[in-house]
Amino acid sequence: MSPRMASSYIVIPARLASSRLPRKLLLRETGKSLLQHTYESALKARRPGGICVAADHEEIVREVESFGGRAEMTDPSCSSGTDRVAEVARRSLGDVELVVNVQGDEPEIAGASIDLAVQLLENHPQAVMSTLATPIRSREALEDPACVKVVFDHAFRALYFSRSVIPHPRQWDDALLTAEPPSFYQHVGLYVYRRDFLLQLAELPPSPTEKIEKLEQLRVLHAGYSILVGVVDEPTFGVDTPEDYRRFVEKWLSR
C-alpha cells in the first residue's frame, strides 16, 4: 500500500440468528459455509490491509477460526451490524483510517467493488462514507421493496435511498430499463466509513425518513453528511431467503 493511501480494513458483521433463513451464515451445501464464501471473496480486495469477522456468538468465532480466518466477539446486544463494526473499530483498529463494512451474506462480493468504495474516500477526503450502486434492468426488481434504490447527483453524492421506485416515472416506458446512462440504480449494501465518523454514527439520532423506510443510511444524509456512490456493472445480491441460498448453491455447483 502506497504511503499516500489511507489505511483501510474490512470488518464483516456476523449474527448467528436470522429470521427468514435460520443460521444462514453457517449453511454449507457447497462444502463451505456462506460466511466462508463471503470472507474469501472479500480477501480478493487489494486495498484493505486486513479482514476480520465481528461475531455475536462463539459458534461464529469457531467457524471463522476453522477456515483460518480472524474473528472478534462483539456484544450480542448490538442493535445493528454497523454497531458491531464500530465496536471492533473502537477496540482494535485505532491506526486504521477507513473501515469497510461487508455484509456476511454477500458471498459473491467482488474484490474490485470493495476497492472502488475504498478508493472513493481515499480520493475525496471531505466525504465520510461511501457505498455502491448497480443499474436496475428489471421492472420486477425496480418495484420490489426489498431492492433498495438510490439516486445521486453529478458528483456521485447520494441524494436519497428508498424502497420505492426512485426516480418515479410520471409515465412508464419500457425503454427506461435499457436507457444509457441507466435510469435506475440498486443500492449495494457495502459501506466504507472514516473511522472517526463510524464511531460517531451511533450517536446520531434516527431520522424521520429512516424510521419510515427502515434504512440506516438515511440518518447520515439527514444529518447533512455526504455519501459517495461508486457504480459497478456486476450486481451482488445478499442471501436473505431459502430461495436466494438455493440459487447461490446451484450457481456455485455448476461452475
Could you walk me through the main structural features you see in this protein, from its secondary elements to its overall organization?
This protein has 255 residues and is an alpha/beta fold. The chain has a single domain (8-253), classed as Alpha-Beta Complex (Spore Coat Polysaccharide Biosynthesis Protein SpsA, Chain A). 31% of the residues lie in helices and 20% in strands. The protein has helices spanning 34-42, 58-66, 81-92, 111-123, 139-142, 195-201, 208-213, 217-222, 242-253, and strands at 8-14, 51-55, 71-73, 98-101, 129-135, 149-152, 158-162, 185-194, 227-231. Strands 3-2-1-4-8-5-9 form a seven-stranded mixed β-sheet, sandwiched between helices.
Q: What's the rounded overall pLDDT mean? A: 94
SS content category: alpha/beta
Distinct helical segment count:
9
By CATH reckoning, the class would read Alpha Beta
CATH architecture: Alpha-Beta Complex
Q: How far do the termini sit from each other?
A: 33 Å
Q: Can you tell me the residue ranges where pLDDT is under 50 for at least 5 consecutive residues?
A: none
Topology summary:
Layout: E1 8-14, H1 34-42, E2 51-55, H2 58-66, E3 71-73, H3 81-92, E4 98-101, H4 111-123, E5 129-135, H5 139-142, E6 149-152, E7 158-162, E8 185-194, H6 195-201, H7 208-213, H8 217-222, E9 227-231, H9 242-253
Parallel strand pairs: 1-2, 1-4, 2-3, 5-9
Antiparallel strand pairs: 4-8, 5-8, 6-7
